[in-house]
Amino acid sequence: MPEQLLRNPNIEPTDEVIAGALGEATGAYLKFIEGLKNYDIDLTYRYYTDGKAWLGKGVHRWTGARGGQKEVTAFWLSIWDGFFKVSVFIPEKCRAEALSLPVGDEIKRMIDESKQMGKLKFFPLIFDLCSDELLDAVYTLIDFRKRIK
Fold first, then answer.
1. Of the candidates 99, 88, 82, 113, the residue with the CA atom closest to the CA atom of residue 4
2. pLDDT for the residue numbered 48
3. Of 2, 7, 42, 82, which one has the fewest beta carbons inside 10 Å?
4. What is the pLDDT of residue 117?
5. Rounded to the nearest 5°, which phi and psi values hold at 64?
6. Over 90: is that where the pLDDT of 149 sits?
7. Handedness of CA 129, 134, 138, 139 (dihedral sign)
């Protein structure tokens, strides 16, 4: 059974701590983080007491038409033993549009089969990443999510 790491609130997720947790998946993680710059996404870690773990929150910020600061959470990231999870939550009303994105059939099947989260009007797309194989599809979904205001 995979184990979620970074559970100690006193040990912040530095590059060294994350690399120790990810092992061989560190290269894919670093490539993912570097690629976020192309999508104007800020990743910050915070310890969440409800889940008792450090999570990364990928946020896109912009200035609204009236000058106010706006933001949308594009994804969540968690560190596991040997891989990292990227979770993108797409509004249910955008499912058809998400199915038209230029991603592979496997990803389209995920979009089609993902179940809405209870009363929340979102469906999750969760990727367990240990290589850079799916990064292009994940970036496409993150970019799509950040454009939904």
1. 82
2. 97
3. 2
4. 86
5. -75, 175
6. no
7. positive
The terminus-to-terminus CA distance of the chain in angstroms comes to 37
pTM score, two decimals? 0.94
Over pLDDT 90: what percentage of the chain? 93
55: left (phi over 0), alpha (psi -120 to 50) or beta: beta
Q: Which of 95, 49, 70 is nearest to 146 (CA)?
A: 70
CA–CA distance from 136 to each of 10, 11, 20, 28, 149 (Å)? 34, 31, 25, 12, 22
